[in-house]
Amino acid sequence: MSEVKKVAIVTGANRGLGLETCRQLAKQNIKVILTSRNEEKGKLATDKLQAEGLDVIYRSLDVTNPDSVARLAEFVKSQFGRLDILINNAGVLLDYADSDGSIFNLKLKTLQTTLETNTIGPILLCQALIPIMKEHNYGRVVNVSSGAGQLHDMSTGYPSYRISKTALNAVTRIFANELEGTNILVNAVCPGWVRTDMGGANATRTLEQGVDSIVWLATLADDGPTSSFFRDRQPIEW
């Protein structure tokens, strides 16, 4: 009997790290659900991967909308009856709007909007989708974080982004703790400074380098790590 194909969801996947993550997972014979808030861009990205012969389908998703998340969960249950991988990649960096990057000048709306996407979104996705993983006692959850959220090396600048990623790291550890003893592994990853729309043209890493640890964590063996923070496949301090 042939092995059942794994199913993965990648959020914020119409470009950049999300799109490349979809590509690399699909190359490992995983069925990938590419999601994005912008339906037109998401479908174009999906068409591009399908043209490469990859098993990728599209679903619209607004990670800040509980109804949108619930619809995605219902689709996965009805169509596949399983979910193996969740990549919480969708994220925003809005601090450019606050001129000098000082927390003294941080606009509350900027912080709220950033937290809704970067922190609350992953919570909603985990709440809705990890129960599907529990049915088969298998799951890999990867929260795409950032070194900017490390308390160990916290600096100034981009305060909303930093706070949201620090909070995402806490979310990672809490879910991992509640899932201790299961085969559902939850980790955070810093992809580094990658040449994306967010990272900019001067970034030092290619997309392939940026997604390497994401894909590695998404395909961990059953004895793999959980409740950890990684860069370049190596644990880093919180």
How many domains? The number is: 1
Q: From the alpha carbons, calculate the radius of gyration and give it in angstroms.
A: 17 Å
The whole-number mean of residue pLDDT values reads 95
Class by alpha and beta content: alpha/beta
How far do the termini sit from each other? 43 Å
Number of strands: 8
Which blocks of ≥5 consecutive residues have pLDDT under 50?
none
Write the H/E string, N to C. EHEHEHEHEHEHEE
What fold name stands as the CATH topology?
A: Rossmann fold
Shape, principal axes of CA atoms: globular
Summarize the structure.
The chain has a single domain, classed as 3-Layer(aba) Sandwich (Rossmann fold), CATH 3.40.50. 41% of the residues lie in helices and 15% in strands.
Q: If you had to describe this structure to a student in words, what would you say it looks like?
A:
The chain is an alpha/beta fold. It has a single domain (7-235), classed as 3-Layer(aba) Sandwich (Rossmann fold), CATH 3.40.50.720. The protein is built from six helices and eight strands. It has helices spanning 16-26, 39-51, 66-79, 108-134, 159-178, 207-218; strands spanning 7-10, 31-36, 56-60, 85-88, 139-144, 184-189, 229-231, 234-235. It has an eight-stranded mixed β-sheet with strand order 3-2-1-4-5-6-7-8, sandwiched between helices. The longest helix has 27 residues, at 108-134. The termini are far apart. The relative contact order is 0.14.
